[in-house]
Input
Amino acid sequence: MAPGLASDDRSTLLVGFEAATDFDAPLAADRLTAAGVPFDVEGATVAFPGEYRADAAVTRLAHALERDEDAGEGRSTRQRLADRVRPHLGDAERVGFPAILGDAHVEDVRADLSERLDAEVFEIPTGPPSLPGIRLEDRLFEALDEAGVSMTTGNPVVDHETDADGRIERVYIDRNGARIPYRADAYVLATGGLVGKGVDSDRDGPREAVFGCHVPAPDDRMAWSGEGAFADHAFARFGVDPDDRLRPLDAGGSPEFANLFAAGGVVGGADVAREKSASGVSLATGLVAGRTAAEEA
Ligand SMILES: Cc1cc2nc3c(=O)[nH]c(=O)nc-3n(C[C@H](O)[C@H](O)[C@H](O)COP(=O)(O)OP(=O)(O)OC[C@H]3O[C@@H](n4cnc5c(N)ncnc54)[C@H](O)[C@@H]3O)c2cc1C
Output
């Protein structure tokens, strides 16, 4: 994606596919021009080479590009795609496609198309199913495997025990009705916010759902929400109140547990929907909570 940076002033062609309807290249080019980007940008829509339904899955198109299958007339998918894009190239020094240029071998596809078009090719992230997201996820799980991390998913943490010092000693997960204990030196709480079920609420107030950590909220329930859908709602900021090591604090301002660290949507204080900061808050707090938990362990 890096060659597609908006701060780069190389002239640009955006290419969309008739079969991949969630990226409209001419519209995107118009909007970029209207936004005053420091480069010329045009958009073109081409038919994806080969026989595909109008709503073909992006993974099918990605695999066709990766395998470089015969796309008719004795020419391969990539050859025919380059042939279709070339008439639109003009002076463009770089060409952006929706992010469907392959799966595990995207770099091969990108290099080949760049050579055929004599312009640097880049991908533009699009909505789900997101191939860049799937590639990142694959790399994350590979890295976890290499680091010897074991994982269990799909079984909720339902209970915990503390030691005499008030540290969390173990948590229990529910597996088909059986309570299975897990023990660690430190724990990262990343159960999400009101939507992810990490924060629960009733008439008495909101609370963190697994460990019962304090969640600050106005006493008057009428003050939990403002007037109008897009108002500055107090409930949108509900979540645990962490110290600078990301340990959730109790109502008196002391850490609830010395070895519990919070990250992501369960952390309160910001209206991430209004700020459009959800991923940023999740990434930043995930990094810090992971590091501080590792120090604690
Ligand atoms: C509809 C919607 C659309 C969004 N779109 C965007 C977007 O376009 N861009 C953006 O940046 N952000 C978006 N967000 C916000 C983004 O999803 C959140 O910032 C991010 O998901 C928070 O990550 P998280 O890991 O903290 O929580 P979550 O993604 O909510 O994950 C929490 C996980 O904890 C698990 N869990 C909960 N309780 C327990 C338990 N007791 N035991 C074990 N596991 C448990 C849940 O099953 C879940 O898997 C969107 C959020 C919503 C709700």
About this structure: The chain has seven helices and eleven strands. The mean pLDDT is 94.
